[in-house]
């Protein structure tokens, strides 16, 4: 038979201590359960009522444990209700309106005697009530609690059924699921359970159906056995599908259950009676009522009980109770943090909260529970949750367990309100494990999805290939799904393949070519420096400021070496050094060029009689220009590293089949500030050199500087659009090429004419030639 637990639970809060400053709470309330038995017979009930109440349903003990576990979890969490302790009482409604009203009045006025309209037992501060699983219980309670404005948290599924009959979400789910199967293969038996349901075997006989049916059940139906029905044949439910209130796995709850034992569980008034009934044994010093078997050893394990007796995983009803308790606790936490809700009236003393103030916080509550699910209420004050589709499986030894095969989620952000995994369903042996097949269309293969035909039956559809970037792993998928960022679809679009992680490395041709080119440029700069050092006493070397020449050549060598920071596996250190080293060293190089240009102009002006420019002609002036310009760039880099430094980053989207590991600039603005300052120095150098291009030939280095700055500016102006249009590691290659091209331009344009004279036209490298050229300029 199928039964529903009729139970309502009461959540209470006791004031323990309050202080504006945090204090250590030294007083705690021990949780206590106000009930001796799970169900007990009462003389004041009718025979029909007692017939129900004398039966024990062990599976419902999990609901009580879920309630106790939630309160325990809240009291042990210092982030929720600090200095406050939650307590609770559990009352039995006995499926009876009279007892429901009686229990509700006991809650409001007294714990022992029934005295209407008289407030006593002031130690109790009732804040909220968790309604029973039976909807009528919640309605009976609501008529009384509404008068006293005490919040009542029920279960949205059942409360909505009170006015709607059967949940429209469940009906929609049935429709969606039925559309997936052909009616000529299988006939469906749908039974909506309300207060009581019929025995499955009787229902099957009344339905007068042939073999080949599948039971589909609503969330109100639970398969639970009474104690005397251990050997009940439940094979007819094998392969059944049911809708269950959504639940999630709570590993801590599993451990909490496993620790339950009648010998070491204090304050649990249910466990002794449950233990004897569930394991058919008698505890020492306990009365035995219609229980056969030996004495209980205490070594019995709850996980060894049949699934119809007790489930180890938290079911939907228990999960709803768990969320309801946490919702009240979070509302109380917000309530208690606002001191202006405290009242000094006679009804609510300074140290107690008024329950009426809790309503506003319950309406607006929103949080994530320990399983990661969001708990919030919609505009109808119902929990925004869906249903799990459960497949009931009965093994050969008649053991029973449930498997989640789908979900109905009306709040799904992607619009997939109903999902089900046909391959995970275990069908009854009548079907030989073959799901129903459509009669007018072949199954859509993996890599495609179904598209319904207008005006055609629901089982007739077209199979369309998945769009680019999406897959379908199974047959007859309603929609194709996108792979996660780390994967991409295979050619058949039925499987996601992990992307390869790539970066600009020495092993690939592009990285190897750039490294070889960099090494060649570096060696050229080294040879140039060596040539100038060897001929440092010659007129052509002396005439062009040897110190600046050496500084420029060394900085160009370092510019070439910077390229190696861009090749290879990006690390945090290399990412920081890439742009900062490049920016500062290039600033030094361009500053040297600017200083050489200024020195050319000053040298020409100093040749005039009585010129004051002779005072500026010296090594210190040139070094001052280089240092001041370089320090500004160093300041920009320091600000960059302080605000948002570069870091290794994965580029998931540039290429479909690759993940590019590269250095993220951190702050694009600072990166372009660095380039902008280099451009500013280059433009000044170009302008000064261009104005000094017609000086006498002995000081004609300005012509070469003009041309070198023209090359430099052209390279970096073309770099910006090329860099922005590139993707992944090719962005790095573009920057490397720009560094090499601009550095090689400076090296070639400024130093190649001098090297030509030094190495090939040594007869021109003498003082007489320079003086003669100065006297007779071209």
Automatic annotation (TrEMBL):
<keyword id="KW-0812">Transmembrane</keyword>
<keyword id="KW-0325">Glycoprotein</keyword>
<keyword id="KW-0297">G-protein coupled receptor</keyword>
<feature type="transmembrane region" description="Helical">
    <location>
        <begin position="581"/>
        <end position="604"/>
    </location>
</feature>
<dbReference type="GO" id="GO:0004930">
    <property type="term" value="F:G protein-coupled receptor activity"/>
</dbReference>
<dbReference type="InterPro" id="IPR000337">
    <property type="entry name" value="GPCR_3"/>
</dbReference>
<dbReference type="InterPro" id="IPR004073">
    <property type="entry name" value="GPCR_3_vmron_rcpt_2"/>
</dbReference>
<protein>
    <recommendedName>
        <fullName>G-protein coupled receptors family 3 profile domain-containing protein</fullName>
    </recommendedName>
</protein>
<feature type="signal peptide">
    <location>
        <begin position="1"/>
        <end position="19"/>
    </location>
</feature>
<comment type="similarity">
    <text>Belongs to the G-protein coupled receptor 3 family.</text>
</comment>
<keyword id="KW-0675">Receptor</keyword>
<keyword id="KW-0472">Membrane</keyword>
<dbReference type="Pfam" id="PF01094">
    <property type="entry name" value="ANF_receptor"/>
</dbReference>
<feature type="transmembrane region" description="Helical">
    <location>
        <begin position="704"/>
        <end position="724"/>
    </location>
</feature>
<keyword id="KW-1003">Cell membrane</keyword>
<feature type="transmembrane region" description="Helical">
    <location>
        <begin position="669"/>
        <end position="692"/>
    </location>
</feature>
<keyword id="KW-1133">Transmembrane helix</keyword>
<feature type="transmembrane region" description="Helical">
    <location>
        <begin position="624"/>
        <end position="643"/>
    </location>
</feature>
<feature type="domain" description="G-protein coupled receptors family 3 profile">
    <location>
        <begin position="510"/>
        <end position="774"/>
    </location>
</feature>
<dbReference type="InterPro" id="IPR017979">
    <property type="entry name" value="GPCR_3_CS"/>
</dbReference>
<feature type="transmembrane region" description="Helical">
    <location>
        <begin position="550"/>
        <end position="569"/>
    </location>
</feature>
<keyword id="KW-0732">Signal</keyword>
<dbReference type="InterPro" id="IPR038550">
    <property type="entry name" value="GPCR_3_9-Cys_sf"/>
</dbReference>
<dbReference type="InterPro" id="IPR017978">
    <property type="entry name" value="GPCR_3_C"/>
</dbReference>
<dbReference type="InterPro" id="IPR000068">
    <property type="entry name" value="GPCR_3_Ca_sens_rcpt-rel"/>
</dbReference>
<dbReference type="InterPro" id="IPR011500">
    <property type="entry name" value="GPCR_3_9-Cys_dom"/>
</dbReference>
<feature type="transmembrane region" description="Helical">
    <location>
        <begin position="730"/>
        <end position="751"/>
    </location>
</feature>
<dbReference type="InterPro" id="IPR028082">
    <property type="entry name" value="Peripla_BP_I"/>
</dbReference>
<feature type="transmembrane region" description="Helical">
    <location>
        <begin position="509"/>
        <end position="529"/>
    </location>
</feature>
<dbReference type="InterPro" id="IPR001828">
    <property type="entry name" value="ANF_lig-bd_rcpt"/>
</dbReference>
<keyword id="KW-0807">Transducer</keyword>
<dbReference type="GO" id="GO:0005886">
    <property type="term" value="C:plasma membrane"/>
</dbReference>
<dbReference type="Pfam" id="PF00003">
    <property type="entry name" value="7tm_3"/>
</dbReference>
<dbReference type="Pfam" id="PF07562">
    <property type="entry name" value="NCD3G"/>
</dbReference>
